[in-house]
Design brief:
- Helices cover 42% and strands 15% of the residues.
- The radius of gyration is 25 Å and the shape is rod-shaped.
- A three-stranded antiparallel sheet has the order 1-2-3, with no helix packed on it.
- The model has no long low-confidence stretch (mean pLDDT 81).
- By secondary structure, the protein is α+β, with helices and mostly antiparallel strands.
- Helix 1 runs antiparallel to helix 2.
């Protein structure tokens, strides 16, 4: 759907450009290119992106969780309750649902 919208926006931009309506054609062309995944203004206003490294750690009553900022990987362990001393990755879907229910009561 975005591709069709982008093509239509570019087609109308060409039409407006051919009839001399530059003030309408240029923004319409930019919208069309953006819809097609090509943003010609991508680097003009944004500051250069720096590499994000490190990890963030969060601790609640039941969980100790670490999130790797660069990769988005999440690791953690249960520190209290029925599943204490278990890693989050070792929980089955059924056990994870039970932990979630326990957390809603003990760790709102």
């Amino acid at each position: 759907m975005r591709k069709i919208g982008g093509i239509l926006a570019l087609a109308f931009a060409v039409l407006f450009l051919a009839t001399g309506r530059f003030l309408v054609a240029v923004p319409l062309a930019l919208i069309g290119l953006t819809l097609l995944g090509r943003n010609p203004l991508a680097g003009l206003w944004n500051a250069p992106q720096t590499a994000v490294t490190g990890a963030k750690r969060f601790r609640t009553t039941l969980l100790d969780v670490q999130i790797d900022i660069a990769t988005g990987a999440i690791v953690g362990r249960v520190v209290a309750g029925r599943f204490a001393r278990r890693t989050l990755g070792s929980l089955s879907p059924h056990e994870a649902a039970a932990l979630w229910r326990e957390a809603r009561i003990k760790d709102p």
